[in-house]
Amino acid sequence: MGTRIRMFAAVAAMTAGVLGGAAATPASAAQTPASYASLAPQDETVVDVTSANYDQVMEMSKTKPVVLDFYASWCGPCQKMAPYLEKYHAADGGKWIWAKVDLSEQGQNKDIADKYGIEYIPTLIDISAGQEKGSRVVGFDEGSGPDDLRTWLNNL
Fold it and tell me: Residue span of the signal peptide, if any (predicted)?
């Protein structure tokens, strides 16, 4: 499997070099998981939410619970929570949709954040059948946070 991925990365790098002229991929980048992670088929239970696809995500909540995850790249507690969300999402086998709402830039996804009255990040909201179920997680404490998060996700 690893050989196929390296071969695919090499072909992609050569194609980029031919099509992009001076563009090149360092050999070390072709060997790292980060360089080919974006080439893998996207997990349909992990969605980056924007105004353009918000209604579609709400439709998805009619078949599976959706966890709206309001975060920002510069937010320390968000960065501490993310690996736990990733771990629990993988362990749950896609039983819920991880719908990430990025608030990193001024005004980014403000309409969605305003709809839910988001004042602090991280904030997780449980959505089912297009409606908030009334359950939220606000903030993240490394002490009790992982266990509290696991319990919250178990109750979706």
Answer: 1-29
